[in-house]
Amino acid sequence: MPQVAAAVASGSQAGAAVVQHLLGQDVGLPVPPWPTQTAVTTQYWERHYGQRPRIWSGRVNAQLAKIATDLPAGSALDLGCGEGGDSVWLAENGWQVTAIDVSDTALARAAAEAQERGVADRITFERHDLSESLPDGRFDLVSAQFLQSPIAMDRAGILRRAAGAVADGGLLVIVDHGAAPPWAPEHVRKFEFPSADDVVGSLKLDDTQWERVRVGTDEREATGPDGQHGILIDNVMVLRRVG
Predict the structure, then answer these.
(1) What residue spans define the domains of the chain?
(2) Which intervals hold domain Methyltransferase (predicted)?
């Protein structure tokens, strides 16, 4: 277990480094200064979203779409919903979604997107700092897509609490970076990322209450900021609550 903890701690730095890099490259903006541990999460993300009217593509994350397409629609919790790409897609596919983020700006954009696409009545938007709170209730699907941040946070603790929000028979779906993009700068690519097994191990879930539906990696084609073509590696973890 100490080896797992060390790997996950190192992986948190790796994930943060990738996020720090991607936050700059995806929108062609200067990367904000690396925040200290005392930085206020809300202020950081408000500043980030305030740089541009649109930060993300608005498309659903590919791994979530692959997993959720064949699931019966139910209730879903979208952790760190950002501008709502995943939440709106889930709502369009019949889910009743609770979408949460720490940024009021992101939530307002997500709500506007939901309104424009005709699914506002299927999504409840709530502001939460994941280190402090989660919505009440249990959900058939709890989704954590690339929940990695330049802000210091207890990611394993957040995901462990998120697991507590999964209803009996429901799924916890975690997707994160398994490696840096091939076009990332050397200081990002040097980090060693935790494996999917490491991430699941860090949650310390009761094996008698959870089934590992899928714990591994997946590859997808992507295009870099300067037109580079490459393969991205994602850790994909799908856990079902059985107890």
Answers:
(1) 13-241
(2) 77-170
